[in-house]
């Protein structure tokens, strides 16, 4: 039976994060089968037919029997998990069968259960990992407090992924036609709370184009967004073929599909990243890699790259409409300020890449 390498991703975001390592393994070990598992439907449904894998599954429930049967079936020579997802029985079975287990782009925080007095079972899970590749020195130091020392600071593979995207971006001629050589403000993965703040800017800055790529694209959510925007200036991406006026004459474009966002940013000047008024912001690096300063809501502190962007003035956190008006207004009207923030954002990504090469030189795949 051919050898296999098992990659597990919680969701679509972790897939994109771990993708550079997945691609490197596939290139270096062309005769190994690649098996991918997902926990979340958002990952599985979008990537179940990826050409990067020989098989894609939902991860079976974490029981001793399932772990044994699954690992016996796919017979991996190595398992690679991205960022998090710590499953006791799977880790235990890999450890029992002496199959190397690597966690890449991991990040740890003091409030996690591993570091609490009652977290002994979860600490035992970590003891089954062959090697951790963590995003920062703080994570390495934190793990050392619970006597986990098989740790290497590698950085975050997402930087490699988003930087590679800027080198060969997928051209979108329709977006170029809409842009019509005008500056563009992109609201990526926006939620209703974000859209309510951004909508008035479309009237305030008529010389700018606006693209909304909502996180959820149900008809209900799209209609609510449309109701916030000035009539006669908006077009949905799916309705462009039926448009009776030139696309270039529209000021606002709503992306009502999934999968375009990472390529959209090449056409923008400023980005607003959604989610900061909810559970947490979405991917800031896709925009920053193209040199877009990023604005986001207050719930960003769990994300190291966002903290770094804020510290360097390539990212800006806001808590209300007045703050958005102040920051966005300065970026939109002050070309020098925009240029400085743009350079900072792109530089952070370019200087932070390299995690994939470091990881690949320190994992063992037989």
Mean pLDDT: 95
How many β-strand runs? 14
CATH third-tier fold name of the largest domain: Rossmann fold
Taken together, the total number of domains comes to 2
Q: How would the global form be characterised?
A: globular
- Unreliable segments (pLDDT under 50, ≥5 consecutive)? none
Task: Describe the protein in words.
The chain is of the alpha/beta class. It has 16 helices and 14 strands. It has helices at 12-28, 41-47, 64-74, 88-96, 120-126, 137-144, 157-167, 173-179, 192-204, 219-228, 261-264, 285-289, 304-312, 321-333, 335-352, 355-360, and strands spanning 4-9, 33-38, 55-58, 76-82, 101-106, 131-134, 151-153, 184-190, 209-214, 234-236, 252-254, 270-273, 294-296, 315-317. The strands form 2 sheets. Strands 3-2-1-4-5-6-7 form a 7-stranded parallel beta sheet, with helices on both faces. The chain has a 7-stranded parallel beta sheet with strand order 10-11-9-8-12-13-14.
In short:
The chain is of the alpha/beta class.
Q: Can you tag this structure with a few keywords?
A:
single chain, 366 residues, alpha/beta, Rossmann fold, 7-stranded parallel beta sheet, 16 helices, 42% helix, 18% strand, globular
């Amino acid at each position: 039976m051919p050898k296999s390498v098992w990659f597990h991703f919680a969701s679509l975001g972790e897939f994109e994060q771990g993708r550079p390592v997945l691609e490197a393994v596939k290139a270096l070990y062309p005769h190994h089968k690649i098996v991918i598992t997902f926990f979340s439907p958002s990952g599985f449904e979008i990537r179940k037919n990826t050409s990067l894998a020989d098989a894609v599954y939902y991860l079976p429930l974490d029981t001793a029997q399932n772990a044994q049967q699954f690992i016996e079936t796919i017979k991996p020579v190595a398992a690679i998990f991205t960022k998090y997802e710590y499953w006791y029985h799977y880790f235990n079975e890999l450890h029992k069968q002496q199959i190397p287990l690597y966690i890449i782009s991991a990040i740890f925080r003091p409030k996690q259960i591993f570091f609490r007095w009652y977290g002994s079972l979860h600490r035992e899970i970590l003891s089954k990992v062959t090697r951790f590749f963590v995003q920062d020195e703080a994570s390495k130091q934190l793990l050392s407090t619970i006597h986990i020392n098989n740790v290497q600071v590698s950085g975050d593979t997402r930087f490699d992924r988003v930087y590679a995207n800027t080198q060969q971006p997928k051209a979108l001629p329709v977006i170029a036609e809409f842009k019509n050589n005008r500056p563009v403000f992109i609201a990526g993965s926006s939620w209703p709370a974000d859209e309510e703040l951004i909508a008035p800017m479309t009237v305030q800055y008529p010389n700018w184009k606006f693209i909304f790529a909502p996180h959820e694209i149900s008809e209900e959510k799209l209609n609510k967004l449309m109701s916030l925007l000035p009539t006669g200036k908006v077009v949905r991406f799916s309705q462009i073929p039926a448009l009776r006026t030139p696309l270039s004459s529209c000021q606002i474009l709503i992306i009502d599909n999934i999968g375009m966002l990472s390529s959209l940013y090449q056409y923008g000047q400023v980005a607003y990243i959604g989610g900061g008024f909810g559970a947490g912001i979405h991917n800031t690096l896709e925009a920053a890699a193209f040199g877009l300063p990023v604005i986001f809501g207050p719930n960003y502190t769990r994300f190291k790259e966002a903290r770094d962007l804020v510290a360097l003035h390539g990212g800006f956190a806001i808590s209300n409409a007045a703050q958005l008006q102040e920051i966005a207004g300065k970026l939109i009207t002050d070309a020098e300020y925009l240029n400085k923030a743009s350079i900072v954002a792109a530089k952070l990504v370019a200087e932070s890449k390299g995690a994939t090469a470091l990881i690949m030189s320190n994992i063992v795949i037989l």
